[in-house]
Write a structure and sequence with these properties.
The complex is a heterodimer of chains A (about 375) and B (about 130).
Chain A: E1 9-16, H1 27-41, E2 51-56, H2 63-67, E3 75-76, H3 83-94, E4 100-107, H4 135-150, H5 154-168, H6 183-188, E5 191-193, E6 196-197, E7 207-215, H7 216-221, E8 227-236, H8 247-250, H9 255-265, E9 274-276, H10 282-291, H11 300-303, H12 322-326, H13 332-345, E10 360-367, E11 372-379
Parallel strand pairs in A: 2-3, 2-4, 9-10
Antiparallel strand pairs in A: 1-7, 1-8, 4-7, 5-6, 8-11, 10-11
Helix pairs in contact in A: 5-10
Chain B: H1 14-21, E1 25-30, E2 36-37, E3 52-57, E4 60-69, E5 81-88, E6 93-98, E7 110-117, E8 123-129
Parallel strand pairs in B: 6-8
Antiparallel strand pairs in B: 1-2, 1-3, 4-5, 4-7, 5-6, 7-8
Classes of the chains: A alpha/beta (about 375), B mainly beta (about 130).
């Protein structure tokens, strides 16, 4: 079989705009900031880019619209976001359609009616919306079933939430910087959708992010440390939040993608130094640890006990503070998972959050409640 | 107070909502493999057959999982309320509200369907203890 085309591509730029409950600039300004910041972190300018995938949530900027800003013919991505966009861009580079691709996204001004939950938490669908379903309830239904089958405890969920939130508390870029919490704080926070309490749930804020990928050849010419694509795959069952989230049917989403990604580079979960797992709700981390093979089915609750997933533990998870404390801006957080992995592998996160000698990182998007889970493996050395 | 969001039936789902209006739970069944298919689809996900026909479920089943919602997505929902996944006896699952004492809810509890007319076109299913 031919060599995996992903292995000829590196991430050379990674950037987060300001993340805040309100960023106080327009979404378009935020997107432009994300674009400039990402190319700057790759020691490039927009003149060096020959592919882009730039989107926004509220205004709804699409890649082809934004392509107009560059004033020359370039490659553009399709509508998908986050890790899926990274893999699409990588394949465009590997097949010679582009050399350097900028992915950027931003959201501001989308969540204005605070009487309701955030717009991105409540997709309109005829078999969910009318029953008062929204993202927290969807993920709660999966969590409850897991607790029933395997004895997973609310304390285990609280351990995940406190661990990740305390990463964010040490990250000056996090929305919840300096907001340390204990497990007891999580368990005492108000109920949202049982078993989830407020501190088990992701933030709702504004922010943007950008990432630059380029060919191996070009990456080696740049004065920045390239981070190499080792493997990646997507697991999708269908559209999110339309069908009952049944654990026995959807609880292993991501397992296939994880096996494929590890198989692409001959690595195993035991080779992973940092896990930037998607953390919309505390329980989802427990589920992914099982699905991705870091522990056996049903053992995720026990796995997270005793500080194992905190920086300094055996497998640090969501080291920038994740969706629970760093940022959850609607879609930007999808891209912020690979960005966190890149920053961790480059040693760019604050010292208090750095995992010494981290060589291999996994990043994920999605979760069982949403019926998809995308996986990306990154490393300091090429595959 | 804004109004509770109501389902907007599609050509594919219309038979389900027509059934609900008459107090009947209608679900698709695959003539080739016998699977019940819900939510409505143009194709059976178990065997990819397009030979789907509408049939009636008795509307009895077990609570598969549930959550008590305290923070509603929309102010038209009075909190707290329960959303459950019910495993119907015919072998498919559906989401709906469960109306009963919260303290008595347990996975495996027997429930049956009921319907409440919310407009001329839409009657919404919900579950109660059997």
């Amino acid at each position: 079989m031919a060599a995996n085309p992903l292995h000829g591509v590196a991430i050379v730029g990674a950037y987060n705009t300001r993340q805040a409950r309100s960023v106080e600039v327009s979404e378009t300004e935020l997107l432009i900031d994300a674009m400039h910041g990402a190319v700057r972190s790759a020691a490039l300018t927009l003149a060096d880019v020959d592919g882009l995938h730039c989107t926004s949530s509220t205004r709804g900027w699409r890649p082809r619209e934004v392509a107009m800003w560059l004033g020359r013919p370039i490659w553009t991505g399709s509508s998908d976001v986050g890790i899926a966009a990274v893999l699409e861009a990588a394949l465009a580079i590997a097949s010679g359609q582009a050399t350097t691709v900028l992915i950027a996204t931003a959201q501001a001004g989308e969540y204005v009616n605070r009487v309701e939950t955030a717009p991105w938490t409540k997709p309109s669908h005829e078999f969910t919306e009318c029953f008062g379903l929204f993202t927290a309830a969807e993920f709660a239904l999966i969590a409850r079933r897991h607790m029933h089958l395997y004895g997973t405890r609310c304390e285990d969920l609280a351990e995940v939430a406190a661990s990740i939130r305390n990463h964010g508390a040490r990250n000056p870029q996090a929305v919840m910087f300096e907001r340390f919490v204990t497990r007891a704080d999580v368990l005492a926070s108000r109920q949202i959708a049982e078993p989830f309490r407020l501190l088990d749930c992701a933030l709702t804020n504004e922010g943007g992010a950008g990432l630059v990928l380029t060919s191996a050849e070009r990456a080696r010419e740049l004065p920045v440390q390239p981070i190499w694509l080792l493997g990646g795959a997507l697991d999708r069952y269908g559209m999110s939040y339309v069908t009952p989230p049944v654990w026995e049917r959807f609880g292993d989403v991501g397992a296939r993608a994880g096996q494929l990604a590890f198989g692409q580079c001959g690595l195993a979960p035991s080779d992973v130094d940092v896990a930037e797992l998607y953390d919309p709700f505390s329980f989802e981390v427990i589920r992914q640890l099982e699905a991705l093979g870091f522990c056996a089915r049903g053992e995720g609750g026990a796995f997270v006990r005793g500080g194992r997933i905190a920086v300094g533990g055996e497998l640090p998870v969501a080291t920038n503070g994740g969706l629970l404390s760093f940022s959850h801006a609607g879609l930007a957080q999808l891209l912020q998972k690979p960005i966190a992995a890149v920053q961790q592998l480059r040693g760019e996160l604050p010292t208090a959050l750095s995992v010494p000698d981290a060589r291999v990182a996994i990043a994920t998007n999605g979760g069982a409640g949403a019926l998809f889970c995308d996986v990306l493996l990154l490393g300091t050395q090429p595959a | 107070m804004s109004e509770r969001p109501l389902p907007r039936p599609t050509p594919l789902s219309q038979p389900h909502w027509d059934g609900a209006r008459g107090g009947v739970l209608r679900v698709q069944r695959c003539r080739d493999c016998g699977s019940h298919v819900f939510i409505p689809q143009p194709l059976c996900a178990a065997c990819q057959s397009t030979a789907l026909v509408w049939t009636e479920s008795r509307g009895h089943g077990n609570v598969y999982s549930w959550t008590v919602v305290h923070r509603a997505p929309h102010p038209s929902f009075a909190t707290p309320y329960v959303v459950a996944i019910v495993a119907l006896d015919e072998g498919f699952e559906m989401l709906a509200n469960l109306e009963c004492e919260h303290a008595q809810i347990a996975i495996g509890m027997r429930v049956r369907i009921s319907f409440r007319a919310l407009s001329a076109e839409i009657s919404l299913p919900y579950f109660v203890c059997e």
